[in-house]
Amino acid sequence: MISHIHLHQSASETFWISALIFTLLVYLRGWLRLRRHEHDNVESWRAGSFVLGLLFVWIATASPLAELDREMLTAHMVKHVLLMTLAPPTILLGTPRKPRAFRLLHPALSWFAAAGTLVVWHIPSVFMLGMQSPMWHGIEQASFLVTGLLFWWPVVRPWPRVSEWPESSILLYLFLATLPCDILSGFLVFCDRVVYPVFLSSPSSFGFSALEDQQCAGGLMWTCVTLVYLIAGAVFTARLLSPHQSEQLAIPQFDSRRIAVRRTDRRRIEAV
Predict the structure, then answer these.
(1) Are residues 126 and 261 both part of a single domain?
(2) Which residues pair with 102 in a beta bridge?
(3) One domain for residues 208 and 74
(4) What percent of the chain has pLDDT over 90?
(5) Same structural domain, 262 and 172
(6) Three-state SS for 50?
(7) How many CA atoms lie within 13 A of 182 on its CB side?
(8) Angle 263-266-272 (CA atoms, 0-180°, nearest 5)?
(9) Which helix (H) or strand (E) element contains residue 51?
């Protein structure tokens, strides 16, 4: 049984490594082509951000940390933080900005998708399913990454969208996103029993008992997620208060008035 699980785990790691290498090669090919055509209009740091995001995914899915997943809840929680909170924004920041309109899910749907994925996969029965089945474990990892990308898309906004959401509402979007994490992590920290019995039979790692491991995992998620959302909120606040942003918001209003004046002048000329 153990060898069967290890066989599936090796296959999963091979899949993730192959997918990451393929994604990196496709990205670098497109980035170099775009760089060659647009020269200085493509920021070099975006390539580094994208590679860093793929590195986070590798650490969570195919590095030695992935082997500790079934032994420590803390390691399991580190993977979740990497896949949902750190990898998605760095990957999206690495996307070259191109002048195209892109329609995506409403931000509210992205929020519910990410929050629902987080809550559902931490229900004890569903959590155990992911721990015991390599297939469901792979689905769990993929769902964290996909919903993480959906969640961070309205925040990072790598491409212009057809229907823009007011930027000021992103602060509320980030604040509300901390609530499911706070509730879950608070429950893990202050609960006086081990929520996931699978870790009771695991060997004690780093001198932690199963309950101490659970408290450490909850505290890790509580701290890391709150800190990342706080940094994102601070960046957004600084952007909203910057004079350059105010000028950008004022330009469309000025253009609309000028267009209205032109239309009125045309009507007067036609009447004459």
Answers:
(1) no
(2) 161
(3) yes
(4) 45
(5) no
(6) helix
(7) 9
(8) 145
(9) helix 45-61
- Tell me how far apart the alpha carbons of residues 14 and 224 are, in angstroms, rounded to a whole number: 28
| Cα–Cα distance for residue pair 169/161, rounded to 1 Å | 16
> 13 with 66: CB under 8 angstroms?
yes
CB atoms within 10 A of CB 222: 19
Residues 46 and 154 in one domain: yes
Residue ranges of the alpha helices (H) in 159-242?
Answer: 169-190, 210-241
Gyration radius of the chain's alpha carbons = 23
> 203 with 156: CB under 8 angstroms?
no
Q: What is the pLDDT along the chain (272 residues), one digit of tens a residue?
A: 444 445 556 777 888 889 999 999 999 888 888 777 765 566 788 889 999 999 999 999 988 888 788 888 999 999 999 999 999 999 999 887 654 545 566 888 999 999 999 999 999 999 999 888 888 998 999 999 999 999 998 888 766 554 556 777 888 999 999 999 999 999 999 998 999 988 887 766 677 888 999 999 999 999 999 999 999 999 888 888 876 554 444 333 334 444 444 544 454 444 44
CA distances from 188 to 44, 92, 174, 193, 226 (A): 41, 31, 22, 9, 16
Place of tokens 């749907």: 109
Tell me how many domains the chain contains.
2
Do 236 and 259 have their domain in common? Answer: no
- In angstroms, the CA 68 to CA 14 distance is 17
Contact 204, 74 (CB under 8 A): no
Beta bridge partners of 161: 102
The pLDDT value given to residue 248: 44
**CA pair distance 130, 139, nearest whole angstrom:** 8
Length of the chain: 272
